[in-house]
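Let us work through a complete example step by step.
Step 1: write down the sequence.
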Amino acid sequence: MPRQADPEIEQRILDAACRLWSRGGGKALTMRGVAKAAGTTTPTVYERYHDRNDILRSVRMETRAELFAAVSPTRTLAEACRKYLEFAIEHRHAYEMLFDGFAQPPSLYERWPTFNLLRQRLTQRLGGTPRSHTRLMLSLWSLMHGTAMLLIRGGVSGALQIQMLHACLDAVEAIVTQTSRSKGRGYSGPKWPANLILGEGVHSQVSDSVTSPRRGGPRRRTYVKPATT
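Step 2: predict the structure and record it as tokens.
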């Protein structure tokens, strides 16, 4: 009788990729290593994934969907932030991989559903449009992500984990409350560029202006999204 395909092989491959990444980072994630960790053969891995980057993208997309599913039932920004941190703690390896190189293609030009959901919750609190709060959402996300990574990398548990989680939530609330009172005034640095759009898939755009140290004038760097087929 012909050998039946293993219906769980793809999930085993993705799980193995997460484990390898958590143990040795990008250098440990090879097609042969993934095959061995998943209990299958290298040709079997290649039958399902073109290369290592294809595996990474699949893990990233799956984790994004799972994170969004965990956060989306919430009704408020505070609830959404708490679910976000709890997901990171419970899925530490996948969470770490999710944000490795997040500001580089192809991740840069993919949809960031949870970021957009959190930004929408923020808009419900402050009014305006979601894109008008991208800068503030980045600061809140940076706070949450930093807390998540401290909890994960520090091996924090018990009472300290609970206190750190709620300390982060309190800080998020304080920032949003202060922003509401000040009506968005008091930001440092340049105004958010209209053509800097993050996490919106085909609408995402990234441009970066830097100052030349020799001439003192602006030098514009533009990252163009690669064409999709």
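Step 3: interpret the result. The beta strands are 206-211, 218-223.
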